[in-house]
Design goal:
3 copies of one chain form a homotrimer. The first copy, chain A, is mainly α. Chain A has one domain. Helices cover 74% and strands 0% of the residues of chain A. Chain A is built from 9 helices and no strands. In chain A, α1 crosses α2. The N and C termini of chain A lie far apart (42 Å). In chain A, 61% of the residues are buried. The C terminus of chain A is likely disordered. Chains in contact: A-B, A-C, B-C. At the A-C interface, α1, α2 and α4 of A face α2, α6 and α7 of C. Chains A, B, C: InterPro entries: Gly_transporter. Chains A, B, C: Keywords: Cell membrane, Membrane, Transmembrane, Transmembrane helix. Chains A, B, C: It holds the Pfam family Gly_transporter.
Chain lengths: 205, 205, 205
């Protein structure tokens, strides 16, 4: 499951890289960052070093393959924004669930395992966006980290209830994916704090 | 002391998040990043994994409470810039001192413990600013990292002289806070290198 | 070799800091970040904590010395852009090779050691650029990460063939440096993916 998540996140990173007209190596770096930063953060935080993404060459190979595929077969006619968002949602779902389960394995308590699952899910996207100096989607987008937390939380709850692992993981990931895609489709957004400020002022901050 | 520092830094992060019109979860992520990134960096660097901010739920609870408080009771009439700076200065003072003392406990030599104290103090603010793609205050502001280094250095010196822990910590934190607030109030700044360049050129860099 | 790399990378960081008109402490933070971030990333990833750059005061002293030297003797007439790029290329070469060799020492397999050498080389520059909210050079520049990978790969190959350590390291670093400088001089660039998009559109992304 980790490798599938790596692949789809790598695609989201590569698409952003191509979109920003990075060169082929920049695209590969961005696809590796998008696909591995979350897992690396989780592994460093729970003390599982060297992180799987570093010690296991299959993760690197997967992200390079995804990056090259996008680089060479990137269709300019693709509805780019939507495609990036869909792959991003799938990666988010897979990583949040896998991340939460790995944190549980390392003995973290359920609340913190859910949090680390969320970090695994959103870390790659944050690294990807920071690398191209864009405010991370997670901080602004419609129901992004919430979806990650939902997936991670369901996985942790399932483990706590001793439900069978694989169906729980699949359902948790689907719930996360569905919430994120519904949020994109229907434009659901979390509330913004009420201020009397005019939004246009913010540019000056 | 760590929890108090967490609270005030979380407030500074939440205020910036509200100011940038992030949604409620974005505000919480920013308050967690501002309050925990410095401590997490320190813990990862000294090998104390999982970091306290991850393994102890009280840190998360504190930053979430601070973030929600700001989100719901954010007064648009607050003199925002000043308030963020004051909370930031308090967090800086508390974290620098606590960070230096934790690094000493892990057996680092005094010079490096003072440096890690400074990292603990400025790390949260740097992470907060980078997340909203703002050049970190620490690199530009009046006497920011210097104040953190003063607090951390005093705490390390006190420990080296075997002075009693609590009074030393309080005085070190007060010295750091006072220096930072004085620098804000009087507009003290560190010198910038002399160049013949016209500042207006920099926009093009 | 690590200390020489620290020095030249610190100079590249300090020059960027002066160029962006940071104050003296900001310049020092930027020179420390540019010179140490790559090595710290490598050490955290392979579990060598506390990282050398933190536990050995000579790294800090070297980067502070380089930062102060640039701050006080920065010549406004220097051909700034070229100078930063040359120092950056030298640091890249030294760090990639030293990083790959350290990763080998910690038992990583050759492919991953070469990758970590590249991370060591490009990490400092990425941290430096992110701190001043600039899209990292590595993602856009002519043959940057490729040169790092070449140096690291040669060093790993040499070690695998049991060639003598010092000549291998020097030749690997020279190859990396030469490739990078040639790429700058002749304007070599890696290809960008073909899209039908007008480059001017990207500003709106």
């Amino acid at each position: 499951m980790d490798l599938v998540g790596t692949f789809v996140f790598a695609i989201s990173g590569a698409m952003l890289g191509v979109h920003r007209r990075l060169d082929v190596f920049g695209v590969l770096v961005l696809s590796f960052a998008a696909s591995s930063a979350g897992g690396i953060m989780r592994d460093v935080l729970i003390g599982a070093v060297p992180p799987t993404a570093i010690s296991d060459w299959r993760y690197l190979a997967t992200s390079v393959a995804a990056g090259l595929a996008i680089f060479f077969w990137y269709s300019p006619w693709a509805r780019l924004h939507t495609a990036i968002q869909l792959f991003d949602a799938a990666g988010l779902a897979l990583f949040s669930v896998a991340g939460a389960e790995k944190a549980l394995t390392y003995g973290l308590d359920p609340l913190m395992a859910a949090l680390l699952g969320m970090v695994t899910g959103i870390g790659g996207g944050m690294a990807r966006d920071i690398l191209v100096t864009r405010t991370p989607t997670v901080l602004q987008a419609d129901i992004y980290a919430v979806a990650a937390l939902l997936g991670a939380g369901l996985a942790v709850t399932g483990s706590w209830l001793r439900l069978p692992l694989v169906p729980t993981a699949i359902l948790s990931a689907l719930a996360c994916f569905a919430l994120r895609v519904a949020a994109i489709h229907f434009g659901w957004r979390l509330p913004v704090a009420l201020t009397s400020r005019d939004p246009r002022d913010d540019a000056a901050t």
